[in-house]
Amino acid sequence: MGDISTVRLLIGDTSETFFTDAQIQLFLDMSVVGDDDFLAASVALRSMAADAAIIAKLEKSLNTTVDRRQIPDKLLALANSYKAETEETPQIGIAERAYTVFNLEDILANKVIREGS
Questions:
Q1: Is CB count within 10 Å lower at the N or C end of the chain?
Q2: Which residues does 91 contact at the CB level (< 8 Å), separation at least 6?
Q3: Where are the alpha helices (H) located in the chain, listed in sequence order?
Q4: What residues does each domain of the chain span?
Q5: Interior/surface letters 18-28, b for 16+ CB within 10 angstroms, e for the rest
Q6: How many CA atoms lie within 13 A of 97 on its CB side?
């Protein structure tokens, strides 16, 4: 099950600077697998990279140079590694086949028991 604080830790947003809890929950809801922390972190990092790309620039002041142009690339690389982590992690799935109406009722009852609704 996805956890907002875990996603925040993965993306380095523990002080809630970039995203609200509602936005992090939206990233969790967007994950295809269902509440996957790494996939949600990947989506969040892609969003951060898009924002960083807008303001990425090279700043020079006296003897100091600050290059922010590489930030989006680094965020995307981290996002890709989190996505790869999700894709490489095996997902557990159980298939139940309905042969009769009674068997189908059992399958539906088991689903209610597992999911609680």
A1: C
A2: 33
A3: 4-11, 21-30, 37-55, 71-88, 101-115
A4: 4-92
A5: bbeeeebbebb
A6: 1
Alpha-carbon distances, residue 116 vs 59, 107, 108 (angstroms) = 55, 14, 12
Would you give the DSSP letter of residue 32?
T
Angstrom distance (rounded) from CA 102 to CA 105: 5
pLDDT digits (tens, 9 = 90+) for 41-90: 888 888 888 887 776 676 777 787 777 778 788 888 888 888 887 777 66
User: Nearest-CA neighbor of 45 among 11, 74, 21?
Assistant: 11
| Bridge partner residues of 105 (DSSP) | none
Q: Are 75 and 44 in contact (CB under 8 A)?
A: no
Output the pTM of the full model: 0.57
